[in-house]
Amino acid sequence: MDKREKLLAAALKLFVEFGFHDTPTSKIAKEAGIASGTLFYFFPTKDELVKALYIDLKSRLNEYISEVIKDEKSLQGILKVHYSTTLHWALKHKTEFRFIEQFNSSPYLKQIAEEEIQKYIKPIMALLEKGVKDKIIKPIDVNLIFSLICGHTFSVNQYLVANEFSKSKQDMVINDTFDLLWDMIT
Prior knowledge:
By secondary structure, the protein is mostly helical. 77% of the residues lie in helices and 0% in strands.
């Protein structure tokens, strides 16, 4: 693990544990075993570190989803695999997903360049638009549908994390809640 990766890993751990504002850069550098000056070499400000960590995590999650979803053809199949893959990744990467949740409900989200955000949501938005156009999905604003899907995903993840279900019970909850989501938008 190189110094930048060590800093990101330390920041992830501390931001989730203490929050963005209660985690000084000196604590991140110490946790990473790296000098503060080195932290500022990679990330000139704490804000830049927070945003870089988010982009890193979103990129990893999206690469994972893209790999799993590539063979799906139907809209329902694509959305189901996207949903279930996101939740399975979240259960396996609890700290990372918790950070993404924190970030999404913070002022930092507005500081991410629109092009960067579009890179992650454009494919799913295009699918939703096609679903509405093809009359598979209800004729509702796709931004609202996307918000409903995201909110549903985060809420179901919180439910799964709060309960110690077996893998088969987790899968059942994920499948059942996807069916509820699908019924809601179609």
